[in-house]
Amino acid sequence: MCAQEVPPHQPSEPSQPGHPSQSGQPSQAVGRTVLDERDIARALTRISHEILERNKGGRDLVLLGIPSRGVPLAHRIAERIEAVEGYAVPVGSLDVTMYRDDLRLKPARALMRTDIPADGIDDRVVVLVDDVLFSGRTIRAALDALNDVGRPSAVRLAVLVDRGHRELPIRADFVGKNLPTSLVERVQVRLADTDGVDAVTISEGTGGEAAR
Amino acid sequence: MKRHLLSAADLTRDDAELVLSTAAELRDLADRPIKKLPALRGRTVVNLFFEDSTRTRISFEAAAKRLSADVINFAAKGSSVSKGESLKDTALTLEAMGADAVVVRHGASGAPHRLAHSGWVRSSVVNAGDGTHEHPTQALLDAFTLYRHLGVDDRGRFRPGGLEGRRVAIVGDVLHSRVARSNALLLQTLGAEVTLVAPPTLLPVGVETWPVDTSYDIDRVLPGVDAVMMLRVQRERMNGGFFPTPREYSRRYGLDARRMATLQDHTIVMHPGPMVRGMEITADVADSDRSVIVEQVTNGVAVRMAVLYLLLGGNESGA
Amino acid sequence: MSTYLIQNVSVLGGEPQDLLLVDGVVADAAGAASAVADGAEVVDGTGLIALPGLVDLHTHLREPGREDAETVESGTAAAARGGFTAVHAMANTDPVADTAGVVEQVWRLGREAGHCDVFPVGAVTVGLAGQRLAELGAMADSAARVRVFSDDGKCVHDAVLMRRALEYVKAFDGVVAQHAQEPRLTEGAQMNEGELSGRLGLAGWPAVAEEAIIARDVLLAEHVGSRLHVCHVSTAGSVELIRWAKAKAAEDGSWEVTAEVCPHHLLLTDELAATYDPIYKVNPPLRTARDVEALRAGLADGTIDVVATDHAPHPHEDKDCEWAAAAFGMLGLETALSIVQETMVDPGLLDWAGVADRMSTVPARIGRLDDHGRGLKVGAPAHVVLYDPSVRRTVDPAASASLSRNTPYRGMELPGRVVATFLRGVPTVLDGALV
Predict the structure, then answer these.
(1) With an 8 Å Cβ cutoff, are B87 and C325 in contact?
(2) For the residues of chain A, what is the DSSP string, one character each?
(3) Number of domains in chain C
(4) B2, B35, B41, B55: which is the annotated catalytic residue?
(5) CATH assignment of the domain containing C280
C-alpha cells in the first residue's frame, strides 16, 4: 500500500517546499526555549478567559483540536473553562488530512482521529485549536472539513504560537504568543501529553532539510 | 509498500493495521450528513467486473464516490469464446480512458496479476475477487469486523495487535473459496489463530503447509473460538462428488441454533455472503444477535475507502 | 549431388576427425584429400560436435487448420535450425489426420518445404473423439507410411478402445503413442496439483491421472503383446512405472514399452506458475523439482528412451491473456539440444553418444524409419548436425523460425548452438542460419 507511517509526533503544519522540517523529535532540546512550562500554562489560561469574554460565557461553545498537538491543548482550555464557568464545554478533534491541498505531493498519509462531540456543531461557536499557525493552509483545510460536518454559527481560531508567514488570508482570534521568525528557523512545540515536556523552542534549521 | 492490492499476502502486519485504523476513522463518515471527503477528487476508479456481483461492486462504487472520485462501471462477460472482449482488450480501453485505479473481479485466478504485471495498464489494480484464488478486501473487512468486536480498547478505539491470539474458525467449501484463502493469510499476519473446518473433499491439496489448523469436526472446534466465519457452499458441488447430499453436508457442517448454543458468549458469527440459508447456515442463526453479517457489509465500504485512499490518495510513486 | 568435407570435428564427442559426405551418404574419410581436389565444400568443424540428424517423435506442425500458429514450412524450418532431420507431426490438426488423405497431404507438404523429413502421425480414433478407431491400416499403407498413431492432445481413455488399437497396429508393426491423462481426474485442470495449485487457486492436474493410465496401458500392451509408447512423461511415479514395465517386458520379448520426455520437463518446475504467466502453461504441466530429478535420472539410465520436443506453437492472443483462458503448450524445436546439454550433458548425466542415442537412433527405431537414426557410420544416409557446445546465448523469441513466439525460455541464457544441419548430405542450415 502507498502509505506513510506517521509517528504520533507529527506537527499539524502542512509541508511547504523550502520550509524546514518541524518533525518533533522527543526530548531533543535544540535551540532556545521561548516558552517554558509556566509560560504555556499562563498563555492557555489567558486564551481561555479571552474565549469566554468574547463569547460572553461558555454556552454554545465547542472546542475542536487539530491533531495531533491541537487536541491536548483543546482539552487544557476546556478544563480551564470548566473551572471558571462550572460546566463542561464539549471537546473533540478534527483531522484535516483528507482536506489538505498538498495530498498529492507525498504518499497517502495516515489519518488521525476525528471526534465530533455528540451534539454536533450546528449553530454553535466552534473554536479550532492548534499549536502553531504558520502558512494558514491547515486552517483552510479545517474550515473545509468543518463545512462537511455541519454549519456552525461562527468559527474562531485559538493557537498557542503564531509565527507569521501567512500564505492565505487567515488570522487567529486568540494567540498564546506572537513569535516573529525567519523562514529558515524551526519552531518546535512539545507537550507533556505527547512529548513528555511542555516547551516551545526555536532553532536554526539546517539547509536542505526535507519539508514535511 | 506496493502499487497494487492483489493478495492478502501483499500486506505486512503494519500495512494491514494501517488499512484497518484508516477504515476506523472513515467508518464514522457514515454517520455524518455529508458523507463525502475530497481526497480522491479528480481521480477515476473503474469497476471492471467480469463476474456478476452487485454487492461488491456497489460497495466499491460507494467507497470511491465518498472519496469524491469519479466511478466508471464496466461489466464484461469474460468467456474465452468471445475473444473480442478479452481481458487485454478491455484493459487497453481503460488505459486510454485514463483510469487511476482498476477494481477487477474475474472468474480466472490470476487475472488481476496479469493486469498488474503485463504492462497493459499503468493504474493501480485492486483485486475484488479472482477465481478461487483471493479476495483481499473481503479479508480486510472481515478483520475489521473482528477488531470492532474483539480488538478494541476499553474506549472502543482500534488497538494494534488486538487480534493477537484470537481464534477464528472458517467453515465450509475452503477448496473453492477465495475468501478463505485471503482470510487465512491475513488473520495469520495479524496474529490470530485460524482453524479451517470442512470435509476432506473440500480442503485444498497442500493445506497442511498453510499456516492454519484443520479439522473435519465442527463440533469439536466451535466451543473454543472467538469468531466463526461460515463460507458459502453451493448445492451443485454435490454433482462433483464433494459431498453426497446437501442434507448430509448441513447435518455435518451447518451452523444451526443447536451448534450456535455451544459457542462462547462473546463469539460472533460471520458470513461473506451471499448465504445459502439452510445449507451452511440456518435463518435463525443468520438473524441472531451474534451474527454480524449485516455489519460486515457496512464495514466493507469503510475498508474499501481506506484501500482506495491509501493506494490513490497520495502521489503514485509510493514511499 | 554435392560433397561436403567437415574437418576436425568431434564425432559423438570423440576425438576430432574428418567427416566426408558424398552423394547424400557418409563416405570413408580416407577419401578426404581427393574430395577436396574435386571441389568439395569444406566446413571447419573445429570445436564442434557432430551428431546424427535428430529425429523428433512428437511435434505439432498445426497444418492443416491452424496456419496462424505454424505451417509445415515454418515448423520444419524451426526443426532444421534445431538440428532435426526428421519430425513426426502429430494428428490433432483441423481436419484431424485420421485418414490417408490428410496424412498424405502433410507428408507432401513436408517434401515440398524440404527443410526436414516429415512423418505424419495418424490419429488412433476418428476425430480424436475416442469413440471408434480411425482407418489405421489405410494410413499405414498410404504414401506417408504411418507407423506411429496417437490421439495426442487427448487420451485414449476407453480401455477397450486402447486394447483394440494396441492389437490392431501389430499387423503393420505400428506403435500406439499414448497421451496419458485420465480425463475425469483432470477436468478443468490448469497446473500440477500440489501445494502451489492450492495456494494459487488454479485447478490441479494430479500425477496419478498420468500414472494410472500408464499402468493400465502397460498391462494391456503386455496382455496383447504389442508396442506402447508413452508421450511426454512428466512425473517421478511414471518413471518408476516404466522402469517396472521394461523389466517385465525384458523377460518376455513379445511386447515393448518406450517413453519420451520433453526438454521443458527436464528443466522447469511448477513454481513458475506463481507468476500466472501462461507462457508456462503446458500439458502435461510442469511438475516439482523431485519429478525433474527423476526424469533426468530416467533419461540417463535409459528408462526414458527418447527426448521429444512436443513443440506446440500458439498465436499471441492464445497466450497473452489470463491463465485459465490460455492455450496449453510451448515451443521446443530450436532449444531442445541446448536444454539437453544444460540439464544432462554438462552435469555429466549423459555423454554425446548418449544424446545421439536418445535423440536420433532410438526415436528412429520407434518410428520404424529406415532412412534415419543410422548414426554417422560409413554408408549411413548423411543426416548430420554440427553443434557448438562452447557458446552461450540468450534466447530471443523474435529470432525464431517458427511463426509463434511462445517459448518459456525467453531471456534465459542457454548453452550451445546448432551451426549446421545436413539432410541427406544437403545443408538445410549453415553457419547457424537457414539455407
Answers:
(1) yes
(2) ---B---TT--SSPP-TTSPP----TT---SEEEE-HHHHHHHHHHHHHHHHHHHTSSTTEEEEEPTTTHHHHHHHHHHHHHHHHSSPPPEEE---GGG-TTGGGSSPBPP---B--TT-STTSEEEEEEEEESSSHHHHHHHHHHHHH---SEEEEEEEEE----SSS---SEEEEE----TTEEEEEE-HHHHSS-EEEEEEPPTTPPP-
(3) 2
(4) B55
(5) 3.20.20.140
